[in-house]
Please model this.
Amino acid sequence: MDEKEIIIKIKKGDSEAFREIIQTYKRVVYNHAYTYLRNQQDAEDATQEIFINTFNNIKNFRGDSKISTWIYRITVNVCKNKLKQLQRQRAPIIDEVYPGDEEENKQLEIKDKEEKKPDSIVITNEKRNMIFKRISELSNDQRDILIMRDINALSYEEIAKTMKLSVSAVKSKLFRARDNLRDKFKKDEIF
Model:
């Protein structure tokens, strides 16, 4: 079933078709939310809110872009709003390593223990935390574009549609984001 057929079915109230959308995009949406919010529970809450918003607003989807682009736009908006809300509610967001799927984490843990010494695991976690911390310090646009391109592997065209920018503006902002990130890494001793 192609995307247009799925959208038509969802608009007619087919919950099974919507489950297919959720299955297709849940991991990418969660990863984006987690990268943005840096907390497992907040990312899970945001992911749920994103799919509720998607379902409630599917009737407004015109099909001018891919559904993934539309879902990313919702994701960015929900994450920005949630981040503002969280910043008002609490002090700085606690850094933690991406939790991932429990089974996946167990497999990675076993592989890490087999292949690495404990001190290298600590260094890897420190680097991962430092990367996420530095990404969170970028401006909203730079952070969004960097996450969409370098973490979620969206095309320049998809990012441009999501961010409502030209492709050249996306490339320019991505260049500046990477450059700013590089400058931040130069200050960190572990890089």
In short: The radius of gyration is 18 Å. DSSP finds nine helices and no strands in the chain.
